[in-house]
Structure formats: C-alpha cells, structure tokens
Design a protein that fits this description.
- This protein has about 80 residues and is of the alpha+beta class.
- The chain has one domain (about 1-79).
- Helices cover about 40% and strands about 40% of the residues.
- It contains one helix and three strands; from the N terminus they run ββαβ.
- It has a three-stranded antiparallel beta sheet with strand order 2-1-3, covered by helices on one side.
- The longest helix has 30 residues, at about 40-65.
- The chain is elongated.
- It starts with a strand and ends with a strand.
- About 10% of the residues are buried.
C-alpha cells in the first residue's frame, strides 16, 4: 500500500497590502503495484495535482469575484 499526498496552494496579492489565498491537499492510498507501472503512477500523481490546481484556481476566482478585485499572482506547488 502506498500513500500519496498532493498539495497546491496559491496566494494572490491585492491592492492595499491585502491578499486572497486558497489551498487543496489530497491524501490517497494507492495499490503498491503502481510502483511497477511508472507511467500509471505518474498519471495518478499528475491527476491528483491537476485536481488540486483546478480546485484552487476555482476558489481564487470565486474570492476575486466576491471582492471584484484584480490579483498580482504568485503560485506555490508543494511536492
């Protein structure tokens, strides 16, 4: 059994020294046989990060629409 932890966080700068941020972390248990399938393993990891990135981008967009603001963007991805 393997454990995968994937996380993405993003913080956008806003006027007047303000900011908005969002983060997403996924923890999943994977079948150990994925270690024998390098492409399959990479695909699972990539999908996890893409899911987190989409969730974070959507949340930032909602926050900006609520505040009607324009960001100065900075993204950090954690492995």
């Amino acid at each position: 059994m393997l454990k995968l932890h994937a996380g993405v966080s993003k913080k956008v700068g806003l006027p007047n020294f303000s900011s908005a941020s969002a983060s997403c972390t996924i923890e999943a248990e994977l079948d150990g046989s994925l270690l024998q399938d390098r492409e399959g393993f990479q695909m699972v990891v990539q999908r996890a990060y893409q899911s987190c990135e989409k969730a974070v981008e959507d949340q930032i967009a909602r926050l900006l629409v609520q505040g009607n603001r324009t960001p100065n963007s900075r993204t950090r991805i954690r492995w």
